[in-house]
Amino acid sequence: MADDALIPLFDVKLEQEHLDAVADTLRSGWLTMGPRTQEFERVFADHLGAEHAIALANCTAALHLAYLAAGVGPGDEVIVPPITFVATAAAARYCGAEPVFADIKGSHDLGIDPEDVARKLTPRTKAVCAVHYGGYAADLPALREICDGAGIALIEDAAHSPSATPVSDERKLGTHGVAGCFSFFSNKVLSCGEGGLLSTDDDDVAAKVRSLRSHALTSGTWDRHRGHAHGYDVVGLGYNYRMDEPRAALLTARMAGLEADIAERRRLVHRYRSELADVAGITLPYEDDEVDVSSCYVMPVVLEDHELRDPLRALMLEERKVQTSVLYPALHELTAYTDRASELPRSEFVGRAEITLPLFPTLGEAEQDRVLSALADGIHSLARAGAATGG
To answer: Model pTM?
Structure first.
């Protein structure tokens, strides 16, 4: 990469075997959900150690069906963190329920705070969604105790976590609750453009999700195509949440390199953390031992002075050509969710102070050094300018 080339937030490099898998699918003449989708489901279930893996159109669909399978309906509440993508909360509204926001632990841990979850429980609470931010495990033991004690479902939003575990538990994220929800969106650790998956060990949940993903039909197109079924019934209100064959083939092909990609992500995150350890004015969420078991989807940095965030991002892009992002603005401060607002000071601060740095397996050390110097120099420059003006 040239010294003056843009360093993107993420990048995807497909190998020839990935392209061949998609091309073979296109040549097969069968493009909708079928044998390649079933193969991917088997491979991913084995990878997770889960009884069932159900491929879906996207992670939003997975969250929606997970909530429905947990019995979430009109008038119910689902407790979610505000520092997450909007789908975590929106899927509750698809069910006729409302999201209730519980604060995160803080700048050191961007996961939902179990103590605040316990405070937000009401007779209407039907589920808690544990978001594994950036591929780092939420506090599952505490959340599981709360959910079991209240008789409610624990759902895992594992969109960032296709191969991660808690520090003290070898079971992969997405296998600790009623259901785990994964994303294969373009910028994810394992990606195919658009796609999702729901994992579960519960046979009844799996059966319901498989039915609902395809209009609650009693047989699928692939079954009828092979002559295994000659018609169908519709047994409920379902959805068109199917994954197609080219995406499933691409995902199966990319699974072979998943662990190597994550190992490189972890190496880059450790290097970021080592080089940033002495930079004043920032907090690095999580600990080194958590990095070692994370899927390291993103590299978050939380500024101690949130007012520096937007000018710093602009400076890094305009002067150093380093792209950054914000994961995420606090949901309860967005227009569609201001009616759910409450006192959530830690989420509000992180939503205004977090910067997401470039991270992808092919990021070179020279490019990473550019990111590091752009961040450190930008903080120093803005702090000095503020001091000079009395800010």
So the answer is: 0.95
